[in-house]
Design brief:
Elements lengths: L6 E3 L2 E3 L3 E3 L8 H9 L5 E2 L3 E2 H4 L2 H5 L12 E6 L3 H13 L4 E6 L4 H5 L10 H14 L4 E6 L6 H16 L4 E5 L13 H10 L5 E4 L5 H11 L3 E4 L8 H10 L10 H18 L2 H15 L6 H10 L3 H11 L7
Length: 333
């Protein structure tokens, strides 16, 4: 399956045709570093609101700056003003981001109510004004993240195709398209046939698929069938950085290793938790880590017990004790 080049994103060349998507509330430095450790060549940071990036004090915060050891790394920005989006892109490149990703896909209701994210798919002119101004402002690789429309009606589909066509004409380096409408959110199955149609219509453009990437073999088979240039891993990477090790093995024609045993899972969970504790007060760190616990638990043979026990833990000692008890040394997956 392996080819000489995995994926080109403008001036950036990856050795595999996949990377980690931006995941709101999840893809912080710790998650990105775990992805890189297990074979992911590139990751996007958590989505950032463009107007917030206009404040120097925000950009100075460590959580909004890339780690010195994680290049290449991308910044995803969201907003409705072309000028503010362009300024945010410029400032984020200045603090060290290597790639800019424009979010026109987020389906979260509070985002849509403010006319951002996926809501902009109903406003092709605004989308293209943003794309054009950002493209004129930054020279780094520029990605555009879309869904396949607000909904499935004909007007929405016309808007989608207009945005696709004109974005490519404006010189973006890749389209990352999630195979669901905004209205669907994450319900049903992702429609990769529409993504294949985009690639067929624009064969020279870099088209990257998104949606339901959970199984490594299936992901590459889908890429082969659709003719897409690559795919992003999103929800499939939460609490499962090992997916990148598996994906890389498939790409390099190597046997997929067995799932991580409980000792390996325990080590990663404890490291993850301790790194969260370094950034937040204990109570807040525990609350933040709980959403990862739910995902880590999916790899455990007693998933319900893990979730029930660890979600009730209210102190650092209780979380650590629960992990040690549930993932005890000597047990295997």
């Amino acid at each position: 399956m392996q080819e000489s080049i995995g994926l080109r994103l403008g001036s950036l060349t990856l050795d595999v045709p996949f990377f980690q998507a931006s995941l709101s509330g999840y893809s912080d430095y710790t998650m990105r570093s775990f992805a890189r450790r297990f074979g992911c060549p590139f990751a996007l940071a958590d989505v950032m609101l463009a107007k917030s990036m206009a404040e120097p004090r925000v950009l100075r915060k460590a959580c909004f700056r890339p780690g010195i050891d994680e290049h290449p790394v991308g910044a995803q920005i969201m907003g409705e003003s072309p000028a503010i989006m362009a300024k945010a892109a410029r400032d984020l490149v200045a603090v060290g981001y290597d790639v800019i990703d424009l979010n026109f896909a987020c389906p979260v209701p509070k985002v849509l109510r403010r006319g951002r994210g996926g809501a902009l798919l109903a406003r092709p002119k605004t989308v293209i004004d943003i794309v054009r101004m950002v493209r004129e402002t930054v020279a780094c690789p520029l990605l555009v993240k879309l869904r396949i429309g607000i909904d499935h009606d004909s007007a929405s589909q016309d808007d989608f195709w207009e945005i696709v066509t004109r974005s490519i004409e404006e010189g973006i380096d890749a389209l990352v398209i999630h195979g669901r409408t905004v209205e669907q959110r994450y319900r049903g199955k992702a429609d990769w046939d529409t993504l294949a149609s985009v690639k067929a219509r624009f064969p020279s453009a870099t088209i990257i698929g998104s949606g339901d990437v959970f199984d490594p073999q299936a992901a590459f088979e889908r890429m082969r069938q659709t003719g897409l240039d690559g795919f992003v891993v999103a929800r499939g990477a939460i609490g499962n950085p090992w997916i990148f090790r598996e994906l890389r093995c498939v790409w390099e024609n190597r046997p997929i290793p067995p799932p991580p045993d409980l000792a390996e899972q325990r080590a990663i969970m404890l490291e993850h938790f301790h790194r969260v504790l370094n950034g937040y007060p204990e109570k807040r760190a525990i609350g933040y880590f709980r959403k990862f616990i739910v995902r880590y638990a999916r790899l455990h043979p007693s998933r319900k017990q893990v979730t029930t026990t660890l979600m009730k833990a209210e102190s650092r000692a209780a979380v650590e004790a629960g992990i040690h008890a549930l993932y005890g040394a000597g047990e295997t997956h």
